[in-house]
Amino acid sequence: METVNCQTTEELLNFFNSLAPGALFRGQTKEYLRADGGPDLRTSFDRHGCIPSRMLKWWHYSRAILSTYVKGFDGLTDLATDQAILQHYGWRSFFLDATADPAVACWFAANSYRSEPCGEMIEDCFEDPLFVVRQRAWYETADDRGCIYVLSRKALRARDLQTVDLVEITTASGRHRCLVQSAFMVGPLHGPLPDDCIMTRVFAPSSVFRSYAARFSELTCEALFPGPAMDPVMASLLSIPWVKREVEGDGIGIDFFDRGLPLPEYNMKDICRTGQTTAYYRRFWLADAAKPETLLGETTFYLTEETLFHSTGAGDLIFPNLTHLLRERTSVALEIDGLVRHPYAASSGQYGKGIYLEGQEDGTMLLTELAVDYFGTRPGGFGITRGCYFRVDDESRWHRIEHPEQCDCGRDAHHAHQLVVAEHFEHALREREFAQIRERVFAAAGVDSTSDPLALKWMD
């Protein structure tokens, strides 16, 4: 590994010009070293650890957003592309950030990341007051010695490490930050990046890196981290429902809400008031609102945590417990404690609340989504969407069949995920994770089965 020290912008320019095409770069405001003195380049997952429930939620939304906005993305692609959204919008992955543009690396070597929580009193679409908590983020000029690592693609290949060009994530409109930053993902990594993948370490005063980056007027924080008006990925992430912060004791006069997925926000603007497409989720259960005269009046509800909806599955469609249950009870709803915002429905007030299953007279099974309208802090109407139909064989394996009433939305990944949720439902039934709490209502252990009084009032 070569070490180069540059004291002027001209020296830095000459160094970059001397490199063969195809190198990758990573800029940092300081170098971190291992105990043996080697460079310690680790992934965000390695540095900060994992919160499984939040990781699954990030992963689910990243795939949903990519399949909605990215050309040719079917929701079934490689791990690196899936994790690009996590990494570049504030969460964690098994991959290391890099760029194909040395000027971008220089900008990151000359500017230090900062963030802080902040709160704001706002109104929802009904002018109901509430308090929102966000994470403000910005970069400030560094005044020290920065570092850029020049990575060898050949050495990375020899180590079976991917170098995924995120410019391939091309949205139909707008510009997401991966494209603006000429971003690459390197990995997956378990531990630090091997030293032999680093061709050169380049050190220079922060002012020299900053001077090099300043030669390109488009390299600003506003450009590198475009807001929701320009970046459809950021807009989708910001549309995920807020979640009420539970506070011990009686009410404090006003409710606090956190983003459903916490993420740093650059160039933050005051909110003041939000429209009908922004939801502030208070815990409520459709099981409490499904009166005998309503659509779901005879449905048996199973209440569970939101995590179950965002989990992954093995694709095993053998459902003996679900099959038996549907032949006994006709219709069943697995309801989650949360709202699911589908990116393609970001301009509407409709959200997912779980899955709905119904046995048909001919022995087939309907699988679809449990849906609810939600505006501001208030739930509204609820029901089910059109879904898919399945034939069950003697081994309780479900086979998709054509049906005149089936959904024709063309979103195969959306319906495939409903099967994943059904798979986890089957597992929970097999493990007897649900206990009956009243007639036609069961709840998983640890689930708070009570509805927020205000939400229940508005639902009634």
Automatic annotation (TrEMBL):
<protein>
    <recommendedName>
        <fullName>FRG domain-containing protein</fullName>
    </recommendedName>
</protein>
<feature type="domain" description="FRG">
    <location>
        <begin position="19"/>
        <end position="122"/>
    </location>
</feature>
<dbReference type="InterPro" id="IPR014966">
    <property type="entry name" value="FRG-dom"/>
</dbReference>
